[in-house]
Amino acid sequence: MSEINLIIDGKECKGASGDTILQVAQKNDVYIPTLCYLKGLTPIGSCRMCVVEVEGNAKLLTSCTTPAQDGMVVNTKTQKLFNYRKQILELLFAGRNHFCMFCSQSGDCELQTLAIEHGMDSVRYPYLYHDFENDATSEDLQMDHNRCILCGRCIRVCAEKVGAHTLDLEKRGWSANIITDLGSKLGDSETCVHCGACAQVCPTGTITIRDFVYRGRRNDCDDVVESICPLCSLGCEIKGYVRTGSLTRVEGSNLEGPDGGQLCHKGRWWLPESTERERLSVPMIREGSTFREASWEEALGLAASKMKDACQKGKAGAIVSGLSTDEELSVFHSVFKDTLDLKYFDCFIGDILRGFKKGFEPFVEQGVKPFTAAHNITSSDLVLILDADPQDEVPVTASYIRVNTIINGGKLANISSATNPFKGITDVDIKVSPEKMFNVITALVKAVSENEPIEVSGVDKTALEELAGMLKEANRPVFIFGGNFASDAKAVTQATNLAIASGSIFEDGLGIVPMVRHANSLAAINTVVGEEPWIGKADIDCLYVSSTGLIPEDSQSLEAMSMARFCIIHTPYMVHPLVNMADVLIPSPAWYERSGHFCTIEGERRKLNTMVKPQLNLKGLGEIFSTLTEKMGVKLNRSEVQPCENIFNSTVPADKACQVAVEEV
Amino acid sequence: MSKPKIATTWLEACAGCHMSFLDIDEKIVDLLAQVELTSTPITDIKEIPEVEVGVISGALGNEEEAHIARKMREKCKILIAWGDCAVFGGINCLRNFMEKDAVLQEAYTNTVSTVNPEGIIPGEELPKLLHHAIPIDHQVKVDVYVPGCPPDPETILYVFQEILQGRIPKVPVDMMRYD
After folding, report:
1. CB pairs under 8 A between A and B
2. Cis status, amide bond into B150, omega within 30 of 0
3. Fewer CB near the last or first residue (10 Å), C or N of chain A?
4. Are residues A114 and A246 located together in one domain of the fold?
């Protein structure tokens, strides 16, 4: 891209060919007011706030949509432009209900900020007073059309980033309005995925998130902290607004990244809610059907003696959370593997992670990275979903899939035992019972790599043939492996063979996106996930459980806790049924009080930052485990190995990956 | 030379703007050394005399209010609109989405706190409602707009001080607010 030179407001500005005037101005710190423009979304030039004068051109041009040209002389701050912009603002104020005194977004509103910036001390036009609807049907969002300025940011983010395209525009002129689906209420929408992206980008008080209004404007917050969402393995980058020790709202911050700064229904609502939950503030010991407060000394002493006895009998176990940071997983590994050498050590949903671990093992041994950054979905020409429900497992990947299919024109195929999660937009949908899944994948491998005819009894033959043809033709197919799918390690290996056969090669590894739910699953696979399943099967005398309390525990792990004779539960919250299982409760810091790293399926290590300083008298993992091991009379071995360092490394490029033989079942 | 005279009035609005004026606290003593407060809700003098500066807070919702606004305009040299109601119409405009009759019906019979079993709507006792609640500049020319709900005391004082210096001020950007 060649460099271009412009003169903006008398200043020499450099840009790249292809930039708009606005982009060049922003690169060179020249401020141009904008309203409908939002970084990362397609500019539409509808609000006219960003108009500029270009010498030699009699018209005013919208800088967000006008390509910059070498030698252009641009003026952005003339009196004429100022007057036009002020006039536009007055017309917007006269158009609908923009009375700030009873709006929850006053102070956070971009329309208000611009009006004040332009010295708008009165409105010279008569008001319309046209009564629009206030759609309050959604549990999470409120959409008051009376406050809408039709900037279309919500429409664009919903279509271009979330791929849901729930919102669009109806009618014309001053009756024009934002519409949900084909005219349904927001609460009844079949396409809305409740991600709240529309509310995040809304510049006025039109779309608001019920949970966040009146909890503190952005401007009133004590602190804004950059961190990541710890709920799933995508690790979306977030900004947390903190006020008086409470998280008042979270927003996606990666506006120009592949996710466009969206969050999912979990991140948007669960994170702020988590600061309002009842905390476990002191260690507690079970007394009959309830608990009594105990000193750290007493609680850890009891835990140590039970753990010591159980270790001697070989009946001690530990289940830790996949939402733990790399650093925490290292501590767990050093305690439970290097020091106590427990036979029973695992992660919640360990069986699924074990499936991925064992299934990928032969390829990792080849030196190949068996997965690719999740956002590569959006540059794929064919996405094949294998028994996955991305909207539930790793929700933003579902956005990637929708965007790739609807906007980028990629193909979409689904093989699942349950309902197709992308009904209506899939090119091929094949229903396969779980026991036939492996056979179907094997048949596809043979069809793609050896051109063998494809036939599996009870499965739609035409669809299989069509899919095999699509896989052969595809240049950059991406495979989505669901959690269900991964419970069979052989299927994972065979499907990886299919990826190799179809030439699913990306710069960073094979074109596979594993739906590992828990934030740090990739690191957990390398550290705490054991070789054999034992949760719910082994006879345990003393079980240590570390849970972040952020997502509900799976039923299998809960069962294991209730079966264990003594259960030490280490958690930040008084969440049920988890705490019901405890004999000793040990408080831990909540996610917003911790910091550390996560290995995300976006293919990078991302940092979780402390958002709120711990307000309780809590102890860190290191301190707790040195006391615990000391009381058990063992020396704590700290392994030097960084458990997560190998995850993103590969010694062999993906195109050198070889298929491996899998025994047919 | 006698001190310049100020008159203020409070039309369709809460008392917020006048409260904000009183919130200039001890500075009111300095101000009163320079000006004379005549007819205001604070002095409770009803008849508006000839004044240098007239101030209106509140929107215009009925004919009486419109009459007072015109009267104020006649009697003053400089007219200030105080607060969002006077400047934009403010919260009173909520009723503009309904017909006039429906507004009376709502206010005198339907509201939860009203006991009016016979459903009597006051007639001649009430000034006639205007079709819409409107900002005052739809009826009279305004010289200085001071938006805010209410405007900050500092802004109210700033406007008086500027006028005393012989200038017709505009509220500067860093003092402007709409809430």
Report:
1. 63
2. yes
3. N
4. yes
Helix B27-34 with B153-164: angle, nearest 10 deg: 20
Q: A539 with A614, same domain?
A: yes
**Mean pLDDT along residues A287-294:** 94
Yes or no, beta carbons of A107 and B179 under 8 Å apart: yes
Answer whether residue A287 shows pLDDT above 70.
Answer: yes
Q: Which residues of B touch A112 (CB under 8 A)?
A: 178-179
Query: What is the C-alpha R_g of chain B?
Result: 17
The Cα of A594 is separated from the nearest Cα of chain B by a number of Å equal to 38
Residue range(s) defining the domain that contains residue A244: 99-274
Domain CATH code at residue A423: 3.40.228.10
What does the pLDDT read at residue B1? 58
pLDDT of A665 over the 80 cut: no
Q: Is the pLDDT of residue A49 over 80?
A: yes
Spell out which residues of chain A touch residue B88, defining contact as CB-CB under 8 Å.
93, 99, 122-123
- The answer to whether residues A296 and A182 belong to one domain is no
Give one DSSP letter per residue of A603-644, joined into a string. SSEEEE---S---S----HHHHHHHHHHHHT-PPPPP---TT
Q: Which long-range contacts (CB under 8 A, 24 or more apart) does B137-140 make?
A: B137/A122, B137/B81, B137/B87, B138/A126, B138/B60, B139/B60, B139/B66, B139/B69, B139/B70, B140/B69, B140/B70, B140/B72, B140/B73, B140/B79
Decide if B63 touches A, using CB distance below 8 A. Answer: no
The predicted pLDDT at position A478 comes to: 97
Q: Is A220 on the interface with B (CB under 8 A)?
A: no
| Strand order, beta sheet including A141-144 | A134-135, A141-144, A207-209
At A219 the pLDDT is 83
- How high is the pLDDT of residue A643? 64
Q: What is the pLDDT at residue A616? A: 82
Contact residues, chain B, for A104 at CB < 8 Å? none
A406-444 pLDDT, tens digit each: 999 999 999 999 999 999 999 999 999 999 999 999 999
User: Within an 8 Å CB–CB cutoff, is residue A174 touching chain B?
Assistant: no
Say yes or no for a CB contact (<8 Å) between A116 and B179: no
- Would A640 be classed as within a structural domain? no
Burial (Cβ within 10 Å: 0-12, 13-18, ≥19) of residue B103 = middle
Would you call A581 an interface residue with chain B, using a CB distance cutoff of 8 Å? no
Residue B59, pLDDT > 80, answer: yes
Per the structure, the count of domains in chain A is: 4
Looking at the structure, do residues A616 and A481 belong to the same domain, yes or no? no
pLDDT band at A134 (very low <50, low <70, confident <90, very high): very high
Question: Which residue from A minimizes the CA distance to B138?
Answer: A126
Residue A46 sits in a domain whose CATH number is 3.10.20.740
Is the CB of residue A94 less than 8 Å away from at least one CB of chain B? Answer: no
Task: Examine the domain organization and report whether A510 and A531 are in the same domain.
Answer: no
Region A495-508: what's the mean pLDDT?
Answer: 95
**Residues A509, A373: one domain?**
yes
State whether residue A112 sits within 8 Å of chain B by CB. yes
Q: Does residue A111 lie within any of the structural domains? A: yes
Does one domain contain both A245 and A314? no
CB-based contact B147 A117, cutoff 8 Å: no
A61 part of a folded domain: yes
From chain B, pick out residues whose CB is under 8 angstroms from the CB of A109: none
Q: What pLDDT score does A531 carry? A: 86
Contact list, B176 vs chain A (CB under 8 Å): 116, 119, 121
Single residue among A490, A517, A544 that ends a domain in this structure: A517
Q: How many residues are listed for chain B in this entry?
A: 179
ipTM: 0.93
| Host H or E run for residue A238 | strand A237-243
Please tell me whether residues A433 and A449 are part of one structural domain.
Answer: yes
Q: Which two tokens stand for residue A441?
A: 């994948």
Provide the token pair at A36.
């409908």
pLDDT of residue A641: 61
- Judged against a pLDDT cut of 80, whether residue A111 lies above it is answered with yes
